[in-house]
């Protein structure tokens, strides 16, 4: 019979491994040659890990996971508390809240949660950048970013949907 300490230790270990994988995926995206040099146009592969965390561990532990991921990526890539860091943080927060709302109310499958997360992330980035720059001019980019987020969101949701049964079996 397992003790609650074993379960907590195993959960924290899995979260740490998932956070490390998400950081590697995010940093790997920096190496991809992008046709347009806009920070918001990325595949968002780390979002797959966020979706898995939401379904496996719920909002509280996913928030812990995202805090670690955002801080590590900030340290290794954009710099902590720079405009780029804050813009990414804004996208991450909005994405987490909307994905959790969609998951909790069972409005979407993991595929839909992936699309919702990608669209919310881009929207949160535009909102945060507009606040930082004190300009609404960036809102003109939002339709393009939302359109581009559809295939990437579908991809991350699909990978999460296919991986989730395996991880659930491993964790239980």
From TrEMBL:
It holds the Pfam family Hpre_diP_synt_I. The chain crosses the membrane at residues 38-58, 70-99, 111-132, 139-161. InterPro entries: Hpre_diP_synt_I, Hpre_diP_synth_I. It comes from the Bacteria. This is Heptaprenyl diphosphate synthase component I. Keywords: Membrane, Transmembrane, Transmembrane helix. It comes from Phascolarctobacterium faecium.
